[in-house]
User: Fold this.
Amino acid sequence: MSKKLYYLIISFIFLSVSISAQDWIYSHPIHFPAEDSNTVRPYYCTLDENSRLWVVSSKALDRNAHNAIYYADKGDTVLTKFIDFDLNGDSDTLSGNVGGIRGIASLNGSIYVSFTVPYPRYAPLTLSGMYRYDNADTNQVFKIVGSPSPTYGYGSFNHGIDISKDSVVYAGITFGTSVRLFNFSNTLAAQGLSAFGNWIPGDPSNPGANGFSNQMEPGGPQTNGIDLIRDVALIADGDYTSTETPFYTSRNSLSSDQITGGIAVWQGGKQDFAIDYTPARVIDFNDFLSFIDQIGYGIDIDANGYLWVAGTDSTRKWVKGFALDGINAIGVYDLPSQTSMDVPDENGAPFVAPVDVALNYNAGVAYVVDLYAEKVFVFNNTTVDVEDEKLSLSDFQLEQNYPNPFNPSTIIKFSLNKSDNVRLVVSDMLGREVATLIDEVRSAGNHAVTFNASDLASGVYLYSLVSGDQKITKKMLLMK
Assistant:
């Protein structure tokens, strides 16, 4: 089958089987404080569990910028400064720690920030560090950066981070043009996975031989710190103790003529045995994801399993949502952009260099950080109630499986409004049950289950969540 025909078939399947089309509209910009206009260079962002947006400014983009963190709550039109490392003496000095912020993530009310350490503080070494702000409080900070801190920092630059629900940070690293995992869980530390805050060896059973041997990103070795893994995206609530759960990275290229960058999907490993992660280049028919040399290309995965990508450079100026099928991606959604180089929309945001994107829990609101516009642009999904920022415990919900289509495994997420006996079953299109995934009492809250369909034939299947007199059914597609 030709590549073009394959994509046409997959496109039809997504449009006919997956969730209904979504309509996005540009809402408004969020500005940085006017007094910071000369020092802000916005970079990456994250959304916490309360839909508070966090954005970093970084010297990684401009040595005259300040390393700082800002936040905005729903309805805000101006970001609030959380901390400015230059003003508190923690940035860009021999006594400071923060040389250039490279990534930000959030989990359970805590904010994680990854950065390089100012050279030559530890000359001839080059280090990275990480801060964690518990309860989003600048007075409750845990530092991994160097003596007299718990460790001496990380011996390779970290770029772009995301965090699993088990408090394991995934980071792109310069060394080996690869990824490295860091343990921020006391429970996992007690189990001997690694010391709290330290990196996790690729094979903890043989750390001396395999500590640095995570596989290389598909574009090959980086050149002089130019073409690196820039961002990382994990599936929210994904089970990263399972080898079936993938994560994604973005990378820029060495130049516009030497394409080393793009999106990679990493599969087969898990957070306590990362050496088995195997990366593969994600391919899209239109070559939207063949990135060139600009820094950024931030990524996020929404609650429906779509990969959102910020097309930073001047040949793109867009933010697109991609449906995924293994290593194949299809552009499905565009956030309205006045300056998009393929689908400009006069009612869209005036993008200059969209560097990162983040979506709230129910994929009803999207935030785009623009490096050169020095703003955050806000978009609303008109098919989702934007008042419903997050599933609460009063909800009985079944989400679309991810990935979809899938082969042979997929993740099904659901939430319960109370502790109760629950059944999660899979049926064929004739109504015959082919698998029972859950039939037991589950607590109130959010849950995720992995379904392995290796024994089933390709086709459309139904999956149903049943609890008492409540029942929700959705479709999914197995494609082998």
In short: Residues 257 and 356 are 24 Å apart (CA to CA). The first strand starts at residue 24 and ends at 31. Helices lie at 3-17, 186-190, 207-210.
